[in-house]
Amino acid sequence: MYAQFFGGYLLSKEAVTPEQLTSAISKLSDTHIKLGTLAMHKGYMTASEVDEVCFLQTREDKRFGEIAIERCYLFEDQLEDLLVSQNPDYLILGQTLVDMGALTNAELESLMYQYQTDNELDDYATAMVDNNTTSHLVENFFEMYHIPANNYTLAYINLLFNNLIRFVGEDFTPLEPMKISEYEVNYCVAQRLSGVAKFTTALDMEPDVAVSFASRYAKMDFDAFDEYVKASLEDFLNLHNGLFSVNMSNNSSVELNLDPPMQEEGPVMQLNETGFVIPVIYPFGSIFLIFEF
After folding, report:
1. Are 187 and 207 in contact (CB under 8 A)?
2. Of 120, 121, 93, 154, whose CA–CA distance to 278 is shortest?
3. Which terminus of the chain is more solvent-facing, meaning fewer CB atoms within 10 Å of its CB: N or C?
4. Residues near 242 by Cβ (< 8 Å), separated by ≥ 6?
């Protein structure tokens, strides 16, 4: 989940524009991580050293690692480590933005360091299997935008982002949460959860975006906004809320009841003082996650 929050982090720092970020996300599947980016992340090379080696590659028919070793910017064992180590997925996003010209290597180096420091990502290998780390990222996400979030909210959002990755695709970035009293709906599916914790969640998007979202989720090629697409959106929301309900029961002995998903007729959805919306950008368009706790 590191790449998803890194995108939001870059936006909060005004390092890139939403348009640049969306374009970069659409290119992620075609991007292969470069040794220079890995070397900066590991602290083996500086941005200026990486830039120099990249320039020399335009003058010499040699691999990046060969030139870096010749210039004593890398040692043999460091090169071997870079070739076999497991690396954060947010490096791909950062490198794509550099390839696009949206960031320089020096800017990426500084932003990566800040991001790792702010989110305490010192040991990526450990963080990869530590659910507490992803929970911490979600908590920081809300703190960054000064949105109050209780434990139920954090657990819900953490699971929701993981389910988007699992069932729809990891090529997204959540944008700044917005506290609003009313929301103008496009096509909106909502579901009420009740019990010890009572809240309403909803998923809203434009019809063409819904077709792409449903196609990914159902693993079918829908070409029109029809009842199958609508049913897929309802199924995703119901599946997620069902998993959340099971987690709450198993982990916190909190029992929740789920109402059937229903279409929010609109044209405006009224939210109480706890309501907020998180826009999430995918290459195929934006979806909006709506919450009222």
Report:
1. yes
2. 154
3. C
4. 258
Mean pLDDT of 38-61: 90
Which neighbouring-strand residues pair with 200? 192, 292
Task: Check: CB of residue 5 under 8 Å from CB of residue 141.
Answer: yes
- Domain edges within the chain: 2-129, 178-292
Q: Which amino acid is at 275?
A: G
Which pLDDT score is estimated for 87?
66
User: Is the separation of the CB atoms in 79 and 68 below 8 Å?
Assistant: yes
The 10s digit of each residue's pLDDT in 169-220 is 888 889 889 888 999 999 999 999 988 777 899 999 999 999 999 999 999 9
Q: Which of 144, 177, 185, 145 is nearest to 161 (CA)?
A: 177
Question: pLDDT (tens digit, 9 = 90+) per residue, 64-112?
Answer: 999 999 999 999 999 988 887 756 778 888 999 999 999 999 999 999 8
Long-range contacts of the stretch 252-257 (C-beta < 8 A, 24+): 254/195, 254/196, 254/197, 255/195, 255/196, 256/193, 256/194, 256/195, 256/196, 256/197, 257/193, 257/194, 257/195
Q: Where are the beta strands (DSSP E) in 37-149?
A: none
Q: What gap in Å lies between CA 167 and CA 218, rounded to an integer?
A: 8
